[in-house]
Amino acid sequence: LTMTTNYSVISKESIPSGSDWPKQGGVLGSPNLSKIIIAEGVTELYVADQSNAYCAAPIVEFPMSLTKVGSYVFGLYKNSTIICNAITPPKILAEDGVTVSSFYDPYNQMKSMILYVPVESLDTYKSNPGWSKFGTILPIEK
Prior knowledge:
- The structure is a single chain.
- With 142 residues, the chain is mainly β.
- Helices cover 4% and strands 25% of the residues.
- It has a six-stranded parallel β-sheet. The protein has a five-stranded mixed β-sheet with strand order 2-4-6-8-9, with no helix packed on it.
């Protein structure tokens, strides 16, 4: 599923109803999806919240345009592989919009997840306090 709707900010309020993007609880995806691609042009992603933060898709791809991501986006993901095409690691924001240093990860699941990033940004992601929580960070192979 590719999120092609013309949004620059995706939040639980902006997700189209009647699709695999449920509005309630900030759920990203559904069990029937194998991959979610957030369209280029999206700069902010806040689809998950503390009450129900998870992703059912095994692969999620973020666009190069992404500059901000909600701190709950990876909170309860289930062994997902994340592909982040952004050259600069997106800022991590709490629900109130304040920049925070790390993602919400109460069950330490990020350490079992794989993050793919642009090869020129590999060291930057590895040294970022939030993004470095991924267990494996690898370059995107082109």
